[in-house]
Amino acid sequence: MTDQSTYVPPKVWTPPAASGGTFANINRPVAGPTHEAGLPVGKHPLQLYSLGTPNGVKVTIMLEELIALGYVQAEYDAWLIRINEGAQFSSGFVEINPNSKIPALVDRSGPQPVRVFESGSILVYLAEKFGAFLPKEGVARAETMNWLFWQMGSAPFVGGGFGHFYAYAPEKLQYPIDRYAMETKRQLDVLDRQLAEHPYVAGSDYTIADMAIWPWYGGMVRGELYEAGEFLAVHEYKHVRRWADEIAARPAVIRGCKVNRVRGKPEEQVAERHDAADLD
Ligand SMILES: N[C@@H](CCC(=O)N[C@@H](CS)C(=O)NCC(=O)O)C(=O)O
């Protein structure tokens, strides 16, 4: 250990005036809206409110895959929610996701709007609505759900743990970086062993489990997250890399990754999507 903490927790925690670090300005210890503002509604039955982060692109990949399969009812409006400006705390957004996190979806195709939040819940909702990318029964369905929930439970150790302390925290602290690098590498090894034996994460077919896992773990092995490829020696996970590269080449994945993206190369950014042509 190279860092020695001198922090002694008080009896009762109070929020710091400024904790520093990326995203510190949007952290609050309470839920609920900070301001009144409604959400825009476009012409399609599916309205997505999101941002092109790993959690956000899970859903745009799924929608673009559905459209590529010919499901015209999966056409959608994707509105940009700038989380660094606090748009997730508007009254309109909190109504559709009380947890104030992107992505959130509203399905307006029925008699009353259905709100869907949590990316895993959105993937299952869409898979069941259109009957695609989620096997209907048996081992294949159980495996898809196993790996989907594995992602939902595991990725916070990568994003909120490793990524936060390695890339975003105001100072580099060895203890949390060691702890979360250990866990991130363990998770990559879990995936590598699975993908050594199967073409896709849940078995022989491409499913919502791949769509959920790829933006995080595919991004890690392709060196796109936190610039941590060398640090984590991601070249060790060659089966994850094989799978990640195959998925990255899918046309619907390429399209989905552009939606609500506001960083990177200008030609890969489509801040809002209201028509298929917006991505052409
Ligand atoms: N478990 C959630 C996580 C969503 C999440 O953490 N979203 C982040 C962006 S990737 C967010 O909206 N952060 C805003 C905030 O923390 O205020 C999901 O999978 O939908």
TrEMBL record:
<protein>
    <submittedName>
        <fullName>Glutathione-dependent disulfide-bond oxidoreductase</fullName>
    </submittedName>
</protein>
<feature type="domain" description="GST C-terminal">
    <location>
        <begin position="137"/>
        <end position="266"/>
    </location>
</feature>
<feature type="domain" description="GST N-terminal">
    <location>
        <begin position="47"/>
        <end position="134"/>
    </location>
</feature>
<dbReference type="Pfam" id="PF13410">
    <property type="entry name" value="GST_C_2"/>
</dbReference>
<dbReference type="Pfam" id="PF02798">
    <property type="entry name" value="GST_N"/>
</dbReference>
<dbReference type="InterPro" id="IPR036282">
    <property type="entry name" value="Glutathione-S-Trfase_C_sf"/>
</dbReference>
<dbReference type="InterPro" id="IPR004045">
    <property type="entry name" value="Glutathione_S-Trfase_N"/>
</dbReference>
<dbReference type="InterPro" id="IPR036249">
    <property type="entry name" value="Thioredoxin-like_sf"/>
</dbReference>
<dbReference type="InterPro" id="IPR010987">
    <property type="entry name" value="Glutathione-S-Trfase_C-like"/>
</dbReference>
<dbReference type="InterPro" id="IPR040079">
    <property type="entry name" value="Glutathione_S-Trfase"/>
</dbReference>
